[in-house]
Fold these 2 entries.
Entry 1:
Amino acid sequence: MTARKGLLERLREGPVIGDGGFVFQLEKRGYVKAGPWTPEASVTHTDAVRSLHRDFLRAGSDVMQAFTFYATEDKLVNRGNKAGETIGVDKINRASSKLAREVAAEGDALTLGGISQCPSYLSGMSKDDVKAEYRKQIKVFVEEEMDFLLCEYFEHIEEMEWAIETCKETDKVVAASMCIGPEGDMHGVSAAECAVRMARAGADVVGVNCHFDPFVSLEALKKMKEGLEAAGLKPFLMCQPLAYHTPDAGKQGFIDLPEFPFGLEARICTRWDMHKYAREAYELGVRYIGGCCGFEPYHIRAVAEELAKERGRFPPGSDMHDAWGKGLEMHTKPWVRARANREYWEKLMPASGRPYCSSMSCPDNWGVTQGDSVLKQQATSTSSEEIAKLKAMQDQKKA
Amino acid sequence: MTARKGLLERLREGPVIGDGGFVFQLEKRGYVKAGPWTPEASVTHTDAVRSLHRDFLRAGSDVMQAFTFYATEDKLVNRGNKAGETIGVDKINRASSKLAREVAAEGDALTLGGISQCPSYLSGMSKDDVKAEYRKQIKVFVEEEMDFLLCEYFEHIEEMEWAIETCKETDKVVAASMCIGPEGDMHGVSAAECAVRMARAGADVVGVNCHFDPFVSLEALKKMKEGLEAAGLKPFLMCQPLAYHTPDAGKQGFIDLPEFPFGLEARICTRWDMHKYAREAYELGVRYIGGCCGFEPYHIRAVAEELAKERGRFPPGSDMHDAWGKGLEMHTKPWVRARANREYWEKLMPASGRPYCSSMSCPDNWGVTQGDSVLKQQATSTSSEEIAKLKAMQDQKKA
Amino acid sequence: MTARKGLLERLREGPVIGDGGFVFQLEKRGYVKAGPWTPEASVTHTDAVRSLHRDFLRAGSDVMQAFTFYATEDKLVNRGNKAGETIGVDKINRASSKLAREVAAEGDALTLGGISQCPSYLSGMSKDDVKAEYRKQIKVFVEEEMDFLLCEYFEHIEEMEWAIETCKETDKVVAASMCIGPEGDMHGVSAAECAVRMARAGADVVGVNCHFDPFVSLEALKKMKEGLEAAGLKPFLMCQPLAYHTPDAGKQGFIDLPEFPFGLEARICTRWDMHKYAREAYELGVRYIGGCCGFEPYHIRAVAEELAKERGRFPPGSDMHDAWGKGLEMHTKPWVRARANREYWEKLMPASGRPYCSSMSCPDNWGVTQGDSVLKQQATSTSSEEIAKLKAMQDQKKA
Amino acid sequence: MTARKGLLERLREGPVIGDGGFVFQLEKRGYVKAGPWTPEASVTHTDAVRSLHRDFLRAGSDVMQAFTFYATEDKLVNRGNKAGETIGVDKINRASSKLAREVAAEGDALTLGGISQCPSYLSGMSKDDVKAEYRKQIKVFVEEEMDFLLCEYFEHIEEMEWAIETCKETDKVVAASMCIGPEGDMHGVSAAECAVRMARAGADVVGVNCHFDPFVSLEALKKMKEGLEAAGLKPFLMCQPLAYHTPDAGKQGFIDLPEFPFGLEARICTRWDMHKYAREAYELGVRYIGGCCGFEPYHIRAVAEELAKERGRFPPGSDMHDAWGKGLEMHTKPWVRARANREYWEKLMPASGRPYCSSMSCPDNWGVTQGDSVLKQQATSTSSEEIAKLKAMQDQKKA
């Protein structure tokens, strides 16, 4: 294991391909609950989590990220969640880490332990309290010998800095990505400034993940790159966007879209969108290229195939996927065989089959963030009265 | 195992839930190649096929259909396919049957062996030749003790009758579904007449599968039901449609849509569409309710949840899915918690995020069918000259 | 004047081109009020009505139809309308007839007096009462020497028959068109049967007008033609559809669409749609080809230009309109000059510039018709209580 | 005439309402040819031009702008145009001025003489040459006693400055508006800087017209306002946008959209859009509020009705238009009467009835401007070879 090249060495050599989003894909497969986004699946449905790791490995992922999204202890006991009590933060993070390591060893992949923003910060708790939450996860990652650490899905640069600092208490390589778009963080800090502060806090790799589609995310990356260059900083850049088209999302991204999370199907990117994404990301100088919510194995495979020349290899899964639709040469219908060419798929403007639906949505725009009382953590379940009240607030905002 | 209730007994008691489509889902997971739709995955990627069976079992499927789509011998050697030679029809069908039986035993599911239309028919070969193809598969299904047989995905009622007759050479219960819409089969036979002929040929269960979305398919079912009633026939009805919206597909269904098969994402149905589908199918009197291409485990779960009352149980997978978005009560953002109610999701008209794309497409309209030379089976790969010629024909038709 | 060829003679020689809709165009120019669709504009704003006649004459119309839509006496006193009392049915119809005659004489156009369905019928009044309403208008048309009569915009074949019978009390040629689509009249009579009954009642020309777009209307015409042929009848066919795309309208047409009447802009047909309409109508055998609501002068000009070869002449207005965009050869921008060709405009799929709007709407579906109390005529204005009650009914139907 | 209040006095008192676009509306009525946009209609079709003036006066316009768009002499002889030779710049401008004055006197409207960018500038001719073109028009405006002058539809601030300077050789009030959006002029000068330079060149009123929809135009106005404030300048602001939705237009506006000029129908704004536009313009501080291409009389009426309170009067045409659909209270159908309220129309999201068309288009993006050889003026007609060459260039850019 020690002979394997580390992340930074690989990034220096060429593009590193991340994996796709676990919570959305496992929700569709039936093993994760939307809302709490239950990371305890690594304990309760180990086979399902392992299968998804294998799917991504086969698709070309160079990194097996332990499935630990929202697995801080404060999140595991928030709003009626029982996982913190019945299973516990240590057991979940450890099981996830072991799974990642097991599958990574089946290929030549790196392992990764990730932490995300936590309810304690949104509730306005202290820096020490927030860091304490992270240390519980990081301790496991170190003990389970994850190759590097990632602070991802942060909406506030301040909390991100605390998270990076906590990671830097170890000797691991640290990557950092915020779930922001070109408009910057929720406190009004620009994308460029966020990038500079992530790098200065010690991140070796910086970028964005989640919340926006590949193309909106690359706009944010472009601003980050400009900010870093102006500051004379040179971290690697990473991008792990949604696989959902979000030209209409506001500052807070797809969470604000009315389709989130159970009506996003019509927004799912095609594999051809991902070819375009991979190429544009690479040309912008991004070297850690992966995906987040909505990315399925075939999306990652498309990224790996687009960059096959740069990487000197096709992903293992290309044995069941011919580039640019060439497999259709074996279709029984001649007019489908006629589609077995790159030009056809590059030019296609896919229809939605939904003539009563529009192209864009007006996002919910609550405009509240850290410190607002409505965001405070609470241990008890949300009551039906609270839901009714929130629904009324929402209706009023829409009127 | 003998104590288990058979298909007809179950259908008499209430709705039986089928599974979803294997070829499209396994293609996205990375184990099946689009074009030849390689059923040999049961041999080459056993774990992946088993995982998908388990996902559907957990989602509520009462039937584990062996993954044998397009696994006739003539298909396995068509247009450069090597699977017939290197693996063979017996081995593929047997491995698939065993997998279905293995997972079915983990629940209380029935096993099913299915046959589909074959290139020999399209090429204009004789009834005996076509039946001989089917017998190679059916022999395995009998030896592997599949609970019942299904003739599915037939575009011509004539070939369907041959297939049913071949199945009836065994003593198995036989179900039959054509991949047609309200306009009927490719030779101009109405949907109503197709239903009558399937029933008269001996099918105990008749209906449609694939090629059209749930709502277009139910229109076809309605015509079938009327035809059967007029003829005094009473088979059970089955429906296993696409999970893609296809209001714009022509007579030959989604294969004619320009998005087939690599640009269909924007057409994917939501879980709420499936609630509606399950309710409408049940009210029409359909008792075998499942899905085909595009149906993922969560779509089947939605069908099972909608019919939970009629079936007296929720699917196992509902432990990770609260009805009508109730799990969102645990979301950190208040405006997402406000979506934790049925009315919100029933009313949602999801946007596509694709402002440069239309709602509907003009289908390719080649209008060729059985007997046309361009449909003839050939053992050799399609050449690039042939593709260029087909592409030119397509461009001309579009102009 | 007597030397002019009459309608039937012209129809025998080739296509006769009608005019476009007066109420919608005059509403946009500022001289007609939407709701009562005030035909008294011929008295109060004579110049504006004359100008529109001239625009249509120049565009190629062969017929100047007196602006007498909804000018029965019962309509002029319905729901707070004062025109019946202050001006009177005789004066309005007479002024309109004179204007039509004046402008017709400036070209070689025919004059036409038209009657439409009246509130008395919807209110359930007797045949005699309804006929009496029509006689007041027809008397004026005869005295003002209109060349022929038209019964148009009828939703019920029964009332249409009464109207034709009343017209047949004169010796004028009678044309008849219903505002129905392929689904037939409001009492469930098929389009084919409606056509047969119009012809049998004595109409020399039969067809449809208003309520549906050109292409839906031609579907209705096709059914009418089949019905007439089956019955061995040979009247001329006429079509005067909307210039609004209505693929989503229900049985009652565009009135049911939520955009009616103040939000229809996005549905307006282009001139190229009208070329297509004129060609398809002509090929179906329709010989009286015009328009209704939404048709502006340039739409009629497009019809006249498409049929220029069949008619042996271009309309006068073509001096300011080169066919298929050729005038763009004089545009300053080269990329606009590149659009100066037929292929460009025939292939164009125009975008709406409205990414938050859908392609299709769900029509209001009240399903009430003649005899329903809510449709009864009343002399007094609608009260705000009534509006509130209707709005509540509508909201309930939408929920 | 001398007792009438002048423009600046009126602007100080409250909003002044402009008129709508003559070329597009007269093209649809049949009197102007698209491409050369023939201003000679004032000579050849005097009645039609007069009618449109009256329509706008009745709709609430405070200004009758002489129809002199593109009536410089160099434009009248460009690319095969014969109007310069057969009629002449003096005669056209004089006839148009007289018509404006005639109709203005029927109300209390001001008269306006306008000049626009000319081919000589695009062709790279000298400042003196360009100014000489403008002086030919301005001389007529002075002799015909137009109340004020307007330099409108300029894409380059440099040419605009030359135009303003030429106007300032008279003692007339001068207004100035560029056909630019938030991205600024074709030479890369920002909208803010353009505003400052217009004001410094002597314009009393500055703003934008044409090329973009009301809401994109107001974004440009906002930038202009900020620039002016930063420079300590206080001219009045004016806005005369398109009545076509153009969220997808590039820097050069709707001319680049593939729908220009014969496929723009689906983009036409509703009257409710214009209420919103008028309110937002007023709140931004814009005091000269009118329209350009696509604005029909009812659009201007909507602006006048929205600002009725601020202006202390409704337009004359409101006698045939009840606010917010109230006239529908007189409709025969109850479900249409239910639409007689403001909330209904404010909330309506109108569908296009075009399910095969998208919401947005990719604009042509030739990126050439002043000085480019392809933009040079030429007296001879464009040849078919040139069109073929341009079409090939266009196809290549699209591929």
Entry 2:
Amino acid sequence: MLDLLSRYKTVRTRSVSLCVPLTPEDHAVQSMPDASPAKWHLAHTTWFFEAFVLSTLGQGVFDERFAYLFNSYYDAVGPRVDRARRGMMSRPSLPEVHAYRANVDERIAHVLVEDLLDPVAQNIAELGLHHEQQHQELLLTDIKHALGSQPLQPAYRSDLDRSALGEIVPLGWVGFDGGLVEIGAGDRSFAFDNERPRHRVVIEPFVLARRPVSNAEVLAFIGDRGYDDPRLWLSDGFATAKREGWRAPLYWGREDGRWLHYDLAGVREVDPAETACHLSYFEADAIARWAGARLPTEAEWEHAATERRVREGNWADDERLHPRAATGDHLCQLFGDVWEWTGSAYAPYPGFRTLPGALGEYNGKFMSGQMVLRGGSCLTPRGHVRASYRNFFAPGARWQMTGVRLANDRGAS
Amino acid sequence: MLDLLSRYKTVRTRSVSLCVPLTPEDHAVQSMPDASPAKWHLAHTTWFFEAFVLSTLGQGVFDERFAYLFNSYYDAVGPRVDRARRGMMSRPSLPEVHAYRANVDERIAHVLVEDLLDPVAQNIAELGLHHEQQHQELLLTDIKHALGSQPLQPAYRSDLDRSALGEIVPLGWVGFDGGLVEIGAGDRSFAFDNERPRHRVVIEPFVLARRPVSNAEVLAFIGDRGYDDPRLWLSDGFATAKREGWRAPLYWGREDGRWLHYDLAGVREVDPAETACHLSYFEADAIARWAGARLPTEAEWEHAATERRVREGNWADDERLHPRAATGDHLCQLFGDVWEWTGSAYAPYPGFRTLPGALGEYNGKFMSGQMVLRGGSCLTPRGHVRASYRNFFAPGARWQMTGVRLANDRGAS
Amino acid sequence: MLDLLSRYKTVRTRSVSLCVPLTPEDHAVQSMPDASPAKWHLAHTTWFFEAFVLSTLGQGVFDERFAYLFNSYYDAVGPRVDRARRGMMSRPSLPEVHAYRANVDERIAHVLVEDLLDPVAQNIAELGLHHEQQHQELLLTDIKHALGSQPLQPAYRSDLDRSALGEIVPLGWVGFDGGLVEIGAGDRSFAFDNERPRHRVVIEPFVLARRPVSNAEVLAFIGDRGYDDPRLWLSDGFATAKREGWRAPLYWGREDGRWLHYDLAGVREVDPAETACHLSYFEADAIARWAGARLPTEAEWEHAATERRVREGNWADDERLHPRAATGDHLCQLFGDVWEWTGSAYAPYPGFRTLPGALGEYNGKFMSGQMVLRGGSCLTPRGHVRASYRNFFAPGARWQMTGVRLANDRGAS
Amino acid sequence: MLDLLSRYKTVRTRSVSLCVPLTPEDHAVQSMPDASPAKWHLAHTTWFFEAFVLSTLGQGVFDERFAYLFNSYYDAVGPRVDRARRGMMSRPSLPEVHAYRANVDERIAHVLVEDLLDPVAQNIAELGLHHEQQHQELLLTDIKHALGSQPLQPAYRSDLDRSALGEIVPLGWVGFDGGLVEIGAGDRSFAFDNERPRHRVVIEPFVLARRPVSNAEVLAFIGDRGYDDPRLWLSDGFATAKREGWRAPLYWGREDGRWLHYDLAGVREVDPAETACHLSYFEADAIARWAGARLPTEAEWEHAATERRVREGNWADDERLHPRAATGDHLCQLFGDVWEWTGSAYAPYPGFRTLPGALGEYNGKFMSGQMVLRGGSCLTPRGHVRASYRNFFAPGARWQMTGVRLANDRGAS
């Protein structure tokens, strides 16, 4: 339990640290229905421990109204505030939310020190830490959207590493034989329910790009009028691009003939060598078609990623909070930098079982209308992601730290 | 100029005082597109003095980006942030907005002390004070909406006077002969352009209710299923009521068989004797029809109000911030308590001329789709309103401090 | 009664004649929620006689389901099909609707020949004829919209008079002294309830343009970038123009540097000399401001129109179905050609009383959000309109045969 | 070619026959954006032969404006009328569309008799026949929606077979071992591009229900308050059900305590024994979860269906146009009766290649946001469907003839 307590303290402290650069108003703003205020993230992750861990001991709650305010989507727990109106909650105030965190942290520390949790509750506490790490990434993507879409476009932090990392590497390919292989998480270590069970799939021979698509390729796609050519796009994708007026990745803007972009350090010129980000699935798919390639399936991606070193990537802990330029001639940036869209719709694995109780809503009920992403990003905490890790977003989403890695049938490219 | 300076300081200080009970997040929240954040009101009223008064002296601006952020609707001044996204601006922060106010206040004080303003600029400064008083009322209505429509429904202030004021007075009538009379503001003292010119109108004999409609009458209207009876409503009104699910005035809710309402002091039971508020024009019109009466025209209202004492009403300065119960058997509550809907569409008076330059947009361009209200309310600063004062809102608006006074043709009721 | 019967036959026959050029599908199409299919107009006007006249004799109905289908907006009569879905009713078929008309016509003829109607029912029958004439104009405006907004833009009739009518007349002014005058319909002959009672109003001295605005002026307004200049527009008007992409009057299109327009005879080049039409109130108001003028009030208009000869205008019976060019140097085209927007919101006259029963919904419940138009148009049947006649539409409506006559305060222009 | 000509005549004649029961207005009505008017189907299928077959011979077109009117979604061919406004096209009239069909039929007959088509064009003509069969089913589903959603709910045909077919069969299961199997179309006979290439997949042991879900099960689901229980639904599904007010399958209504439904023969009481239809994917998924089961994957479905006799089903040619009750204790109704939702998102098979040229848009660009259905329905022409045939619709679509077959992991149910 002391190991769990140590990790609990580390993870919980990091959430608060992420908010240090924010003003009180920054904590409260919700720039679109899909995003949540930072204050809400701080409270919701706390509620998770109170509602699912402390409740197993019959403990009362800090404030009985908070279940309504900070439940995200657990229907089995009860009603909740409309997601699109999270930014309307100026109360509880930021000091009250910090008091809520302190109260729950103290109670959790107590039950861990005293070893009061049964194994099921320990597992839920473990889940709660992974859950909080997910919200740490969401907090960064959401605050980026809030700051980046308001007129003054303030930087989140002005001290982030923005050193250039050299020349762009040519886009080469790595071949894989595929065959009858296994994917999915085994039983030994922590994994979300949607990564299980481990199961067999057939993979035909394929090639995978050595690195993700860079801004240089995106600029070439734009130069080829890719955003105006319906033949490159899925039908829904082209309709979305037209309706929303997409002319470039999110956060890009054109000024005096130059492409600028906003990132968490402020506005600067687009660096062609950097790995491209803030692309939707629809754009990823169109760029792949323009390149004569396709997106990898999630099975192909996981097959290629197995045995790669996960921790070496560019993670949130590296304090860059933006993708690097790819370097080297090996298969690089699979982990970290950008989440990579796959061509696989988010669906249950054969034999998938949800968690029991309210936590059964954690992943399963979102298995429609979303595409799988793999590999984590520069906004993900180091250590959070595995080769079998499945992230998922709607195909039109652009505010996540998402990018593109090309694939192809072997012999096709 | 020293009189103007004195009033400048008084008015400007009051805006800041109104915000003292608010948290930083309360300052920033925008609960619907028609409402603005308190922080925006503080900045916009400041920008008004900078853009229209200090600019006449060729002075530079505090921050050149603020014109885009805090221009409300002056097209002649330049582009501006989309009104519905004012709540997205977490920056400038509250301290920065206060610094902006201090800077402009200092500069205005200087030019007034040094008597640097020409007569036109002095008039604009005078206009700026009336403008700021209007925004003081909007600030209160908007923060009431922001606090009252979030789940915790916090009180704005818990120290407001909530003493009950006795029994309800029967609804009697006062008769007027009308005839060929004059309405509108004369030339001697301050008035907005839309109150001019003073002009002749014909008024047929009419009666006016001694007091506004009280909650008792609204409860009777509800009891008669007034919200469900299309015969009582304008066609657009009934469609609006159905679409928005109106079952009672805004801020009312039913709990355990009792009607509660939210006001700036929190939630309490509806007091039948109090003057009813937060009714739209559509509801006012339906209640009048249900009562066998009609709304007064603005000419009737002004004719009846002329010679009445304005300052005796229940104004914001009285620290109740909610209507009282009417008392006495005379024509009462014409001024203060609630804005009274008239049956007159907001239109130019014969011979109307807008102000020159950008300030020509102050009133004239809103003369379509709105109805005139008269008399001021318990959220209006004392001294701001005149008998000729014309307020105006769309017929479906309910978040303003609006109520109903009945009228009728003489002999009809 | 035989006079009434004779007029009944004339009016009813004309409705059917208007539909002769239409295919069965043309009869059924509804091009927007505000328009109705021709077949619906044929059935609804028939239902009016059945529901309000024959019902007074206790007669049964042709088909009990038709009340739901062909009731327009009479809540007191019962529920009805959603207005926006009138075009979804492929049934009853056109032959069935004609059978319905024949059945009601036969029954009405019988009761008139046998003199079975009491005076109230006779008055309703009279109202029914005026009602049907209103729908004859709506039928033409609606079918024009249906044909003109589909890709092939077929002509309604190719045999309409399209002779040019000479040079454009300069826009001169006629002065009026105004004073304390009376407007509204007296008691002797037929008028709608909204034209009564006749009452006194004060009119200040004013001038009225000799002719309506022509296409030449509209072209000049466009050339001056009038559609892009917010200073010329009401706030709601400019927002509407931008949202709906207005660049010219409805039915105008630009091709190879020329302005073409669609009218009921097909597509042809815009004739600068013709009186302009299909302008909304918002455009009328903006054009007036651009011209340094304003729109007349409805009192001014009626005061000027009284004593003018009504029947001489260009009416639907003249088989042009489009405005002419104005000719002569007198006050011309007051009646016929185009409905003229006034600056008056549609509101009850002092002492207004609705008709008893369900027919009380005929006019009164639309008295919000609409502006008054006067004078009739080239799509109005000759004899339908009076000087006191009040038409009304929302300020953004463009599909009616609407135009602009300028006015001004005397001495202002 | 004579075989092709013979089939051409058969297929083309059938489209016209399907429209015989329709009035001219029925041909033109479009009851929602996803549906098309019958007249449009008649013209679009004709345009397909003109644009893709006759064009290869350099032949001119019947009317050059028709490409704009009757192109469905081929961006490479040019612009087209907005899909949601197909019902606005009262012109060309029905006789003109029949003349268009006759003209193209004559020209196609000529080129087939004279053997003027090269092999590629012959294949496209073959594709055109399968395309027209698809539109025959769409024509029936769309006209059902048009007739069934208007107030009179007229029958399409009153002479359809509506004999009851006995008692409901218990829902038993058939087991399959799965393994490494092949699915997809081989190269020998006609198949759409999306059915290819044939490829290997891994299927774990599973069971499949002997028959589709019947109305009896749907009634039990309703009785269990299934439409109100969020735990049974995908998150998007529950939101859709609430937003659209789903309480039962499409076309069901409750009257006097009985469930009625509309079908192409009119309104009648729901027969519990009949196979349920007009269920969305979201409902199918919820019903499966309620039943403790799941939907089959498309690979499982195809694996089970291979070797089954396709032609024995209840097809459109059987003149019932509604599902039967399932009979017998074998795996029944796999083909015909209802399209069966699978749990598989519509995606390209490994190695998928689109057709060259504009026909590459036939299937590939719809591969996002849709779920695969299998097996054909009682509205599908006999002979049109294969075991490898992939139909696809959005998960919220209910107007297609869609039903549910349950599956499960072996040992799980």
